[in-house]
Every structure is written in C-alpha cells, then in structure tokens.
Amino acid sequence: GGCGVIFSRTVQADVNPFNTSDSDEEAERRREPSPSAEPHGASLAPFSSQTDAEPRALSLPGTRASPGGDGVPTETRVSVDAVAAQLLRDQYILTALELHTELLEAGRELPRLRDYFSNPGNFERQSGTPPCWLRLSFPGNTLAANRTGSISTLDSLDFTRYSDDGNRESDERVAECEIPSQERKNYKSSPEIQEPIRPLEKRALNFLVNEYLLKNEYKLSSITFSDENDDQDFELWDDVGLNTPKPPDLLQLYRNCGSSQLSPREMADVAVGMDTSDLTKDFITQEPVQRIETIQQEIIQELEYQISLLNSEKQSLAEQITQLQRKLSPAFHQALLSFCHTSADSRLGSEVSCIADSEESVMLMLGRCLPHIVPNVLLAKREELIPLILCTACLHPEPKERDQLLHILFNLIKRPDDDQRQMILTGCVAFARHVGPTRVEAELLPQCWEQINHKYPERRLLVAESCGALAPYLPKEIRSSLVLSMLQQMLAEDKVDLVREAVVRSLGIIMGYIDDPDKYSQGFELMLLSLSDLSERVVSATHQVFIPAFAAWTTELGNLQSHLIPSLLTRIERLLQGEHGLDEHKLHMFLSALQSLIPPLFAVVLQNAPFTGRARLANEVTPIEVTRFPRPASPLQDVSTLVGGREQLAALLHLYEHQLQHEGTAGWDRLLWVVNQLLPRLIEIVGGINVSSSTCVHEFSRFFWRLCRTFGKTFTNTKVKPQFQEILRLSEENVDATAGNGVLTKATVPIYATGVLTCYNQEEDRKLLIAFLEDVMTTLSLSHAPLDSLKASFVELGANPAYHELLLTVLWFGVVHTSALVRCTAARMFELLVKGVNETLVAQRVVPALITLSSDPEISVRISTIPAFGTIMETVTQRELLERVKMQLASFLEDPQYQDQHSLHMEIIKTFGRVGPNAEPRFRDEFVLPHLHKLAMVNNMQTVEQKRMDVASQLFEAYSALSCCFISEEVMLNHFLPGLRCLRSDMEHLSPEHEVILSSMVKECELKVESRAMGEPPGSMSIAASLVGEDAKTKFLSKMGQLTTSGAMLANVFQRKK
C-alpha cells in the first residue's frame, strides 16, 4: 500500500517505456542507472514545476493517451515481460504484484516476476534508514522506517489484502492507487484520516506496549493485555513475524520522535535544494493553492474517466445478460413454477405470500396473525408476546382489532404469577403513556371491568393492580368516579386477602391523584373499611400506602386537624363510653390510624411554622440523628419524604428546636392546636381506659411514645410532661385526696410511665422514671388503693429487658421502705418481674430481696412473698436456687408459728394450684402434693366453718389443676387419693355440687390403682385424662363450668405436663 503514497504521476520525459528487450539480460542491463541520471525521487519535491516533468503512462491498446504527450496514441503491442520490467524499474511494486497474481491465476507465470517476488533481498534495506519520501512525510519517525523495512519476503505479505475476491479493503487500496500521488500524500498525512493498522504493525506495537508495561511495573495490566492477545508470544520478538532487529522501546521512540524534527532550512534543502529566501512571497502563498487546484482537476478527470469506463462495462454486461436469457413463454414459466409446492389459498399462505411494505401493513398483518399465534405458545412463555401485542395495539388503525388485542393481553395467561403480572402492568403503563388518557379510558378500563369478578384470584389481582398503575394516566373524572367505585366494590366483596391488599394499595395511589373535595367522606369510609379488615396483610397495606396518601390529600384540603384526627378521637371516646364493654379490636384500629397520622401531623407543624420561610436560607445544619424519629412503616410515613428531603428536614428541625427553646409558640397555630386541643383530649381519653386491659395500655403507650419521639425531646419536656404531672399530682400532701388516688388507679399511670417517660434514655430520664414509679408505689400503698396501675406499668416495662435493672432498683426501694404497706407491695411486684428476668438477676437480686422480706417482722409482708417464691419454682431451673426457695416455703408450712395462719395457708394453696402443673415433677411429687394432703387433713378438723369453706374451695381448685398432671402410682396412693378423699369429706357438708365431681375423680383414681394392681405395668396416671364414659365426662365438665372457679384455674385443668 506504500506505493500509492510514494510516486507521482510525473516522471522524466526522456524515459521510454517501450525501449525494452524480452531477454532477461537486457532487462538487468536497463535496471542499472546511468551515472548522469537524476536520482529517483528528485522530481517529487513539493515546489517543483510541472513543466520539468510530464506524466508517464503506457500506451496500451484500448487506453487513452497521457494528458501531457506530444503525439497521437499508438496501437503498438508491448510484451507482458516488457510491462513487468517497466513496473519493476519504476518501483510500481504493488501493480507488478497484481500483474503477477493475475498471470498466476491465468496459468501464465512470468519468470521475471516470479524471481523478483521470491527473492527476499528485493525487500530489504541494508542501511535500515527509510527512503527520502518517508523522511519527508514523517521526519524523525524511526518506527515508520523500521515498518517499511519489515516486509522481507513475498510469503510475509498479506495477499488477501490485494486479491480480487471482493474484499472491501482490497477495493479501497486499489481505488487509492488510482488517485494522483500528491493527493494521496496529502490525504494520508492528514492527522484526521489515518491508514488502517496492518497485522504486522499491530503485532510489533503490541510487543512494544507489553514491554513498556512490564518495565514500568504495570504487571496486572500486562497480564490482562497478554490475555487479550493470546495469539502472540510476548517473550520472543521473532514471533512478531519481522526479520529485522527489535526496535528501541517506546520511551526511546518517543524521545527520538520529539528531538529529531527537521528545521525549516533542512526541510527546504531536502525538498528543493534551494534557499527559502529565494522564494517570492507570491510564490509561497499562491503556488500551493494552484497546486491544490491542479490536483483536484486531475482527480476529477480521473474519476470521470473511471465512471465512463464503468458505464461502458455495465452496458456490455447488460447486453451479455440479454443474449444469455432464454426465450420461454410466461405460461410455461408459470406452469413450471407450479411444481414448487407453494400455496396462497389458506389464511397463513396469504399472509406469507404478501410481505408487508409499510408500517401500517405490518400492524395490520400482526393484528390478523397474533390471535392465531397466542393460543399455540406455551403458557410459561406467553409473556414474551407482551411487547408484540402492546406495540400492535398501540399502532393498529382499527378500534375493533385493538380491543381484541387488549383482550388477548388481559387473558394471555390463565393464572399469571407475580412476575407475569408485573410484565403485563409494565406494558399497560407504557401503552397508557403512549396513547393518552382518552384511549386508556376507552380501551384499557373496559378490560379491567370485565374481569372484576373473574373466578381466578390472579385475574382479579391483575385488575386491582392495574387500577393503581393506570391512575396517573386516566382522566381525573374517571379516576374519582368509575375507578374508585370499582376498587370500593372489590374491597367490600372480594374474599381473597391478596386481592384486597392490592385494592388498598391502588386506593392509596388513587388518593394521591384525586382532586375532588366531595370524595373526602368516601375516602374516610374506605380508610375505616380497610382498617377493619380481618387480614393483617390488608391492614398493613392500609398503614403503609392508603393512610399516608389520604393524609396528604387531607392536608391539602386543610382537614387533617379540623376533621380527620378529631373524627378518630370521637370514635375512640364512643368506644370507651359503650355500655356493652370495650371492643379492643376497634380501639386498636382507630388508635393505629392515629399513630399513622403522627408523621403527617408533624410535617404540617414544620411547614406552617414562623420559621418555615427561613429554612431554605440555612447553609450548615446539624445532620439528623439516626434515632431521631421512630422507624417508619413505609417511605410514605418518613417525615423527610413528606417535607421534601432529608436536607430540608434537617434545616427545619434546627429552626424548630430553636423556636421551642428561645422564641416560644406564639402565632404558631398548628402547634398550638396539638398542645391545647389534641394533648388534653388524649389524656382525658387515657383516664377512661380500663387499666386491667393490657392491650389498651400497650396501644396507648406506643402511641404516646411515637408522638413524643416524633415531636422531639424539647416538646416532650415542655409540653407533654407538664400536662400529665398536673393531673397525676404525686405530692405527699395529696396522698389521701380522693381525686389524686382516683387518677393513680387509672391507665394514666402506666401510659405516662411507659409511653412518655421511656421516650428518651439518658441518665436524667431514667432517674425521673425511677422516682415516678417509687412515688406511685408509695402513694398507692399508703392509701390502700388497688395496685393495678402499678402492675400494668411493671408488666409493660418488664417486657423490655433494658428496664429490668431499673425495676429491680424501684423494688429494692420498696424492700427497705419503713412502711410495711410499701414492703408488701414490693413483695407482690416481684411476682410480675420474675418471669421475664434472667436467672442470674433472679439469683443475685430477686431471691435475696424475697428472703429479706420473708423474715420481715410483719406477717403480712412474709405472706406477700409466697406468690413470688411460687413463680420462681415454676420458672427457674437452677437446682441450688430451687432448694433455697423450697426451704423457705417449707418453713412457712412447718414452722409452728404459722400453724393457725389462715391467710398464709390460703396463699400457699393458691400458689400451689397455680404453679404446680408447670413446676418440676420432682418438686410437685415430693413437696406440693404431700403438703396439699396435709392441709386437706388439717382442714377436716377446722371448726370455723367459713375458714373451712375457704380452704376447701382453694383446695378444690388446686386439685382440679393438678389432676391433669401425670402422677406416679406411689404418690397417687400415698398423697393424691387420700387428699381427694379428705376434700370430698369437706365438700359433702359444704358444697354438694363439688362433691359430685370429687367422687368421680376419686372413683377414677381408685380404678387406675386397681388396674395397676391386676398386672398392668406400673407408671404415672392422669385423672382428667383417664375419665371413661361420656356421661362421666359430660357431668364433670358441666359441673366445672357451674362452679365459681377462676379462669386461670379452669384453663389449667386440661393442660398436660410433658
């Protein structure tokens, strides 16, 4: 490819291309230049005149004369060997190579060309320096010189680059050789247009690049580079394929390239051998322009000539084709083609035979074919057809066909799974964006309406999800009427949880786009309907999507504080005032809705504050702490999402705290509503809750905790706590006040303790909580008030292990209190705490405190410890700890000072009945049952009838609970059966209805013992489990239901100890 850049079309006029001989000797003689001849290439100087040389061309038959020739072209025939000799002499190497190749293909090998191209010496430069033309084009370019000398033999040439096999690269190079040499020089030296890299050049550069990477410690890059060029061995230079020495490395080539630029003087000398000062200004400025114009004219002439040749060739080929065509009649052709077995008679044949030639015809064809394609595609792969169906439905011109295609889309899969529905929904959204609201209403919605009552839940689920996904693309009138009605119907009627969950989510999306204020009441009823759903999935979706979206719309309408929150509070108040008892499910429903409205309420307070306009001006604000807000149920309940971003929220929070601490709440209407209306109303509601309802206490506690954490510590300390403290009034002078005692027994105490005082966990917060619980315990104890509010506080706090140490601190305060009443209260509180505390704390903190109280001077304090000791026996597994508790209980039962302590006996029997079924079997058999037997025997001799009846009733409950346990035969004979007989003896006189049940139990026990005595294997037995005969069972259960037995005992009757 180098010859096209090197040689000009102008050579010395005195060279006669026809003055050659057919002999090799004559050719070799002419190959030697004469001493007086001008060096080859001197005429290539860029400033040489065109008059110094004339274009050289061979006058061959059928070619035109050279433009600069003097005579008329002749028809003299020249031998092929003469042409080859002239080409080699003038260094038209590639042209000679092409001639050699064509002769080889024609079977006429020419010895001159064969010998030339098989001799490597013809392609080597001994000096290793590039020729003058290369030095002119790329001064200082050593790499170019080495590249030129790299072609060593004919075998190393890439023949495919120059063959006539239709290769594009070959065609481009042939065309390039036909362009005048000066134009080629200008073209190839242009920095914007580069000649494509050759294979050998690429291998040489790859070798140098890899060498550079290794030398400069880019080992990983070198490895990757080697992997990407796995066809080359970078260890050996010879693998490159060149027979020249390895060139310098890249660094040396770079330095040489930059340091060997020729000076203007040198360039002028080399080019024309004359001083640049001899050139006139006009020559320098105008000569290049004239040269360019001349070159352009030559190119145009050459191209026009080539076009004329191609046209002539085209005409000749057309004539030849016409001559070769056969003269057959059309009828014969048609008859002949009928044997090809083609048919256009069928539907498919007509579609196949008519290829669509426009977009509209393609859409029409797809509309006709898709209904036939879909049924024949596997169900598992039908989603692959969704793009095709949607595209056709979008662009098809016929409404009827579009309707059919959308019907196919919604019925594409009988029961689409999650992924398949997602693909269909994605397609529906794309369709809606493309066609606009009118066509969505007219074409997509009818498909949804048709399947609203489909028998498969997956289809109805698709409808529910589609209503939400299409909401942004529907006309607003349709959104708030038809679509809302569809979803409301599905929410009320559909039996499948998943469908109703999707309906609630879509309703939430509708609420985000609805703008008809008249639909507010309908939205409120939908919220209540969703919250009352029996499925947790539906309720969860209501809190995550529907309520946040509905609250956002309500805020825009201005109804959040004026209607939505007050309406929920009103419903809670009605529940608490109901005559038929509290519906805890509805209370949870309304309270959870209020809890979900806390984030939008706080966002309203922030966005309508005196400082809201200054929030954008804050540059540096403190980042929000991770624990600043409770974890939101969904991103829609995140306050940062509601106010417009985390940075905006940080700026607002900074100003919010500053406003509360330094500037007050004057003029801040939204916050004043929370302080003056919401909080007082909530605290009043809390006072009406039944404190024994742990569910209600927990719900309100969580609500106040979220409210205080959301509004912040400053708000809690300055606005919430003072209102509770004013109501509770825990000062000593109010201990006997009826009002003070009344409020202390209500749910206000546990909700304030667990919902407000636990919001923050700093040391001062924990101290405040401890002091409050100590004051409540003291006040309730000294005023002989019920302890339910204190117990509720301990139960709620005890559920969190983080508060166990704090509660033990409070109880120790009671253990060492001077009042026996307070000490009794502390002893009873230990029973609530034991079950949740780990055994280490029980051993280190609980048992020592109980043993201290068990030796209290006051008998009431000692009796108060028995339930806690019993709970320890029920829950603890440490042997040493159990022995200590067992010894303490034994001292209560065996010490003579307690022999006539009726209250102590009642407490022990009650405790045994509660913990016996779940206690360790050994403790039950060796301690509980024997002592119950003794107490039953003692009760037979009780002279005070009321005491006897009290103990007998308590024993009946204990034996009823223990009858479900598996008892060994020995214990059955020695303790359980004798104890039952003693109890039956009491009940014969005191309570005949109890006696019937006891007789059945005794009879069953005796039958068990007798069956074992007759040879059955020994083992344990359960009386309740061995009741035989339906009459006995029915009688037993009916009698048990009539008795005034506590719920806990009845629940334990039919428990089995494993």
Automatic annotation (TrEMBL):
Name of the molecule in the record: LisH domain and HEAT repeat-containing protein KIAA1468
InterPro entries the record matches: ARM-like, ARM-type_fold, HEAT_type_2, LisH, RELCH
First and last residues of every HEAT repeat: 846-884
First and last residue of the signal peptide: none
Location in the cell: Golgi apparatus, trans-Golgi network; Recycling endosome
GO biological process, one term: intracellular cholesterol transport
Keywords: Coiled coil, Endosome, Golgi apparatus, Lipid transport, Repeat, Transport
